[in-house]
Amino acid sequence: MTLFRDRGHAGRELAQELRSRHEKRAFEDPVVLALPRGGVTVAQEVARALDAPLDVLVARKIGAPFQEEFGVGAICGDDPPVFDDWALGRLGLTPTTLAPVVARERAELHRREELYRHGRPALDLRGRTVIVVDDGLATGATARAALRWIRGRSPERVLLAVPVGSPEGVELMSREADEVVCLHRPVDFMAVGLWYDDFQQLTDADVLAALHTDA
User: Which of 17, 112, 123, 204 sees the fewest Cβ atoms within 10 Å?
Assistant: First the structure.
């Protein structure tokens, strides 16, 4: 059984919850950061509902060299990689052996930042409530790197907001964010895409259209 028709539907549901909290003054002066690509459509609805600025925060998963889909860490900005020490030990990997993967992902990260922002600087996060939005939360590898990057920019408060997430991922990210807002935490989570009727991959063009369309 799916929960959402598509990312737009999920974003509106998440936006309603966050707007309710904002109206009760649970947080002030919000700025919304989307984790692209999938999080951008969701975040667009949240930013519109909160009348808040929207920007992207590009984080990239670090995959195992022999199986790229198996994440062993992530990077955000120019911060050092955030590795899963348990996964590294299990697979016999080290930060040194993963250096080529990190370099490749860092290059892609910067390419996307330059493309999505059109040369404008990142938003100033000092003293603001930062709401990080994605279309779902599985292991939380990229979210962890993103949240730690944000912490280094002196925000007042950091929220991670997702329409659906694994119970384990939500618990882990609760140690990184001041609060995790997750509408649904299915015990049989498996994968984010299972909870959407339409979960087709977004393109750079989709991200640019969301970011540069007036609310």
Answer: 204
User: Over the stretch 61-71, which tens digit does the pLDDT of each residue have?
Assistant: 999 988 887 88
Please say whether the beta carbons of 185 and 165 come within 8 A: yes
Segment 162-171, tens digit of pLDDT? 999 999 999 9
Output the six-digit token pair for 146: 């993103």
Of the candidates 127, 124, 130, which has an alpha carbon nearest to the alpha carbon of residue 143? Answer: 130
Q: Which of 110, 148, 118 is nearest to 130 (CA)?
A: 148
The Cα–Cα gap between 96 and 107 comes to 17
Closest Cα to residue 131, out of 29, 31, 46? 31
CA 99/CA 6 separation, integer angstroms: 36
The DSSP string of 192-214 is GGGGBS--PPP-HHHHHHHHTS-
Residue recorded with tokens 């050092």: 80
Q: What is the pTM of this model?
A: 0.93
